[in-house]
Amino acid sequence: MSERPGGTDPVVGVLGAGRAGTAFARVMLAAGIGVDICSTRPPKALRHHLKIYAPGAQAVWPAEVAVRTRHHGPGVVVLAVPQEELDEVDPQWVAGTEPSGVVLVDATNTWQDELLPGWLQAAVDEQLPTSMAIAGRFGGAGGAAVVKALNHISHHELEEAANPELPLGQRRAAALAGDDQDACARVMGLLVRMGFDPVRLGGLPAGKIMEPDGPLFHRPLRREDLLRYAR
């Protein structure tokens, strides 16, 4: 993911300003990536929170979270909202206007104590990857292409795990899964710039092993470890 024409740094949107969302923001900001971030609080109320937990991130309204990343690349929004609150996220906030529009990185996880929206609980009951249900809700005609990524590394260790100064082969590997090749390429570029070694496991169904209790979750792995699971 290169710098934009005219010297403008790339911008990524983050939906959710909790512990995970602000951890993603800090890592991206440290890598020279601008961050627009939103939450249920209006931007004015969010700014003090960001001064503490993600200095340099720009607080925006949810409907604005994808605006700058569309124009300044890479056209990526990270979904870092608890799954129990996903009904509060309007798919139009991230919907693209063309097939190469916004990519939505599903960085969410399912926890046993969460009361999930019905459409998501149905996928869990059928033992489907939750990303497939999220793609059904946020994708479709004019919607975002969904890629599963950034969920299997704990936000507590994200900053330590990301190291853009290391050669690619010496970095911690970061898995991703998605059906759209262009979307996956954009997310891989983002992960490289953040300081990881990205490995695509396959289409969205491959994201199942990235979920809690899966073989990748919260494990410091290298590329050769992840390639064993690639489809």
UniProtKB/TrEMBL annotation:
Domain of life: Bacteria
Protein name: Pyrroline-5-carboxylate reductase catalytic N-terminal domain-containing protein
Keywords of this entry: Oxidoreductase
PANTHER family, per the entry: DUDULIN-RELATED
Domain named Pyrroline-5-carboxylate reductase catalytic N-terminal: residues: 12-109
InterPro entries, A to Z: NAD(P)-bd_dom_sf, P5C_Rdtase_cat_N, STEAP_metalloreductase
One term of GO molecular function: oxidoreductase activity
